[in-house]
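Slides due. Your pick:
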Amino acid sequence: MKSATDNYYLECERHWVFWMLIFVGGYYGAYTFSVRGGVFCNAQTANVVLLALDVGNMQWKSALYMLLPISAYLMGAVVSEILAKEVKLYRRARHRMLRWDTLMVGLEIPMTILLGIMPASWPDQICQVTLNFVCSMRFNTFRQNEGVPMATVFVTNHIRQTGSNLVKAVRDHDHEASVRWKLHASMIASFFLGGLAATILCRFFSTFAIMGVIPVLAAIFIRLAIADCTYEKDLLNQVPRGH
């Protein structure tokens, strides 16, 4: 039985989890851009810029529309924060519960399936807002990759951290920086592969291509559930780093 120590990382904090989750993040982005409205669902920076442009140009209808994805992203963070606390309190009262990180991935699976079977004729905004909500929940839930702050839905910071740590590794011979730039670079690569996979599958399966992430999400969920019910059963009250 593994014990909780300062050097022990929970299964939900492991490298493999973050690699697989950011693969899904890249997949979502390419999917919505390719077949669901030509937008990216992963982050909201561009949407806030577009909102400012619409307000500045007095395009009120368009501005109100831009509030939809931004609000969905905001609500995703709020709901994940509330549910994480509620699950933790419930777990204290009853044994053999899954941790919130595992449940979050489990909830993502049926939501993705529903989007896959949704008729292509339905408004793209349904898919866009749903994935905005899902990505925000995931961004707020999975925060540190074995002690290194990381995101699983976009790569802007990974690109910056790769460059910054690469310089430190080469110039200062910093071993930790050497490890970090490679880890951030691997996250970029995984995100890219997710986007590439989605682009190829969308050419053949159109809106149904989102089903391609189901095996990945299922593998993560099963592995995390096994950890929660077996070798990390006594660590359910241990909070992942970054929370």
User: Anything to note?
Assistant: Residues 1-5 have pLDDT under 50 and may be disordered. The chain is about 70% helix and 0% strand. Helices lie at 15-35, 45-56, 60-93, 100-117, 124-141, 156-172, 175-205, 214-229.
